[in-house]
Design goal:
The protein contains twelve helices and three strands, in the order αααααααααβββααα. The chain is mostly helical. The protein folds into two domains: 5-179 and 330-345, no CATH class; 184-322, hpI Integrase, Chain A (Orthogonal Bundle), CATH 1.10.443. The two termini are 36 Å apart.
Length: 346
């Protein structure tokens, strides 16, 4: 039975902001994120580790931002979005670049939003504020700062702010990619495409379960394929996924790549339980790959075909030829941003 995402997700058309201003000039959450970024730069860690740690830190600071005010939550959400989007080709940004984003970019946006209604600012006013901020930094820093502003404002547009009428630097720099958002009705359409696809039944089941997992928590495609049976704990609600790539999966076992995530959507948990029971019937044990087959229990089953089916389904559902599994991470971030901003209104 198809899942109706419209019951549990906020759509763009139904999302309406109330007029809200920042409650004050307190920026403890923004300053804390800046301090964390500086510390991470001094550790000289890998790009993906720095990015994941900053994303986690941003999530921890959200409750503080909510107490400070609506604008502070928007800044944290936009900063998280810019960190997640990455560079021109979507790769993780260098730690020093992330630190400069947070050191110069977030205070500049905070200054623009003090006492302002974010949705009340016109696109031209946003553009004027961004360009004014660029004039306050060294010429060598303007490219990175403009890239941050562009990525930040794409998040702001998703949650209701006016788009910019022109590029911040008039196209003088390459911009980070736009984070595509796949909306609830598009997800339902994508799932329908999977159920009618002319591929083996088990591939359809894998693709459906994979997309349902990604609709509930931010997970990368390689993390999805590294899940093992024991990583999917369905004994209680919410269900718990232990995202824990092993060395034998060809993935570095670092602290940044290990985490637990809850899934509290009952229909999704039901699909996971059915799929896990099927795997047990195929002879799989707790140590075997979750997305495996009956013939080779500890090998990924039709990984390329399943991934291709998920991507084709998302292209079909969204109507965009460049849609992919990774867009579901941006979708979750955007929907979480909407939810947090609504809470900050109350």
């Amino acid at each position: 039975m198809p899942i109706d995402f419209t019951e549990s997700r906020t759509t763009r058309d139904a999302f309406v902001f109330q007029t809200t201003r920042a409650r004050g000039r307190r920026m403890d959450s923004i300053q804390a994120l800046d301090r964390m970024a500086r510390r991470l730069v001094s550790r000289r860690q890998a790009k993906h580790m720095t990015r994941d740690l900053l994303l986690g830190q941003t999530d921890l600071l959200m409750p503080i931002g909510q107490r400070e005010g609506r604008s502070q939550v928007l800044i944290l959400g936009g900063a998280r979005h810019a960190i997640e989007v990455g560079g021109i080709r979507g790769e993780p940004l260098a730690p020093v670049t992330l630190a400069e984003y947070l050191r110069y970019g977030t205070p500049a946006v905070a200054e623009m939003l003090v006492g302002a209604d974010p949705e009340g600012l016109s696109g031209q006013e946003w553009l004027y504020g961004y360009r004014a901020a660029l004039n306050e930094v060294l010429l060598s820093q303007r490219g990175k700062l403009a890239a941050f502003f562009e990525a930040f404002h794409r998040f702001a547009v998703v949650v209701g702010c006016d788009p910019l009428p022109a590029p911040i630097l008039d196209g003088a720099i390459e911009l980070p990619p736009a984070a595509a958002v796949i909306w609830p009705m598009q997800l339902s359409k994508a799932l329908g495409y999977i159920r009618n696809a002319q591929v083996p039944v088990h591939v359809r089941r894998q693709a459906e379960v994979g997309i349902l997992i990604a609709c509930c928590l931010p997970i990368r495609i390689h993390e999805l394929w590294c899940l093992r049976m024991q990583d999917v704990n369905l004994l209680h609600l919410p269900a718990v996924l232990d995202i824990n790539p092993r060395l034998r999966d060809g993935v570095n076992k670092t602290a940044a790549s290990r985490r637990q995530a809850d899934i509290d959507c009952q229909p999704v948990v039901g699909h996971l339980a059915d799929f896990k029971e099927l795997r047990y019937l195929q002879g799989a044990t707790d140590e075997h790959i979750f997305f495996g087959g009956s013939g080779h229990l500890d090998l990924r089953h039709e990984e390329e075909l399943t991934t291709s089916l998920m991507n084709r389904a998302l292209k079909h559902g969204s109507g965009r030829p460049d849609a992919s599994f990774h867009d579901l991470r941006h979708t979750l971030i955007s929907l979480e941003g909407e939810h947090l901003l609504l809470e900050a209104n109350q």
